[in-house]
Predict the structure.
Amino acid sequence: MNRIIACTLSLVTFFCMPASAQKTVKITALGGKSFCGFSLKSGFYNIGGTREYITREAVKGDNSGIPDVIQEIKNTLNFSVPIKVFIAAEEDNCFASIGENGVRMIIADQLFLNKVNKSTGTQWAAISIIAHEVGHHIAGFNRYTSQLKSELDADYWSGYILKKLGANQEAAVKCILYYGTDYDTSSHPNKRARAATIRQGWNDAVKGSYDPSRCESCSDN
Amino acid sequence: MKKIVSALLVGCYFSTSSFAQNVTCGQAVSQLQQYAGQVNQIYQNEYWQNIPNVRCPAYVTNQWGQAVPVNPQVVQNCRWQMLSSLNQWYGLQCQYVNNWYAQIVRGCAVEQSTEIVRPAPDKRSGNEENSEIDTDEIEELTAGIDEDKALKISIPKTASGYKPKF
């Protein structure tokens, strides 16, 4: 019996770590929040399971530019919580999540962000998506009974951040008005509600204030 | 046991079919991991629950509701046979999953740029947020990226964010 148990455990490990696993970065994502719930390829991308396929971890100064953008956002907000950035391929999405051991991360498809910039005609589109994901980390993940509220709070921070970074209000809402849905979905509010919330965040940044109900622990940040 | 094998074969069929469709690499890997998880779950259930308690129990209940011990030799033989079958089945699943994974890796390597198989950087010690950039590491990380395909994301210089036209 002991011999069989040992065999079983080794096989279980083998399933979890296939032969080529060392060539890729695999993470376990818990409670992921997707950006808009849309996909340029299939219409709707649902994280569904708990695992994602990641090509590599992005680092500051690399060709993706995403960690640098996130660092700039954090500097602007004085938000010092570490966020790891991973590059996904062919996901046509961008999402924030808490990984194993509480690691905060943002997973982004760089080509997807390029497409969004191109189709909306403004480079602020990609920044608004990244800011939305940072907004999820500011807003927190576990205090919501409604995912729609969670998305709106992230949108609020997207608007707030874009104003702080220098975007005008129309640039801040351009992405959501282009890609958002006309009606609420199970995961995301309609684009008018989202644009209104982004504008609210943008306006609060102009006034130099923010809505404390939009974040989990603003005083700690 | 035949029921288990049949169920898993059905699972194989659906999984293989879905991979043949136009799923992304991420979706394919996710499906594979879900399948492997199901295999492991079935194995665990069989090993810890079904075989000792249902298929080869040490006690059976007689017509008066009393627990009656089964001949230990019979129990041992039964469990040995069941575990042998279970491990044989598990070995086949293991082979199947790894073949499937190799198929995904090959497919994704063809479809995507070589950045997919670049190794992740080693975790650096100290305060990562403020640590200096290791330029050698960056070169290693980005060597396989198709520069024409992926454009660097950066914060625009103008409020409207349009690219300046020259």
Observations:
- Chain B touches chain A through 58 residues (CB under 8 Å).
- The first strand of chain B starts at residue 59 and ends at 61.
